Amino acid sequence: MTQTADPQSFDRFALDYDRFVSLLPGQNTGWLLGLGLKGKRALDAGCGSGHAVEALADSFEEVVGLDLSAP
Questions:
Q1: Where is the Methyltransferase type domain (predicted)?
Q2: SS (H, E, C) 5-71
């Protein structure tokens, strides 16, 4: 039996997730920034609320966040 996730399942959780992540700024992106990545372009596929996109903006000329969930 193959299970598939509802692509809009995050929609119901998006505002709560963003509120939760905002309580501890940098906590969910600290590991990413610790990698020391730099360059011209970065892509965050499944970016959710865009916290990692925002964090990467200082190290890249262009950062694109892509998510199936509109919220």
A1: 43-70
A2: CCCCHHHHCHHHHHHHHHHCCCCCCHHHHCCCCCEEEEEEECCCCCHHHHHHCCCEEEEEEECCCCC
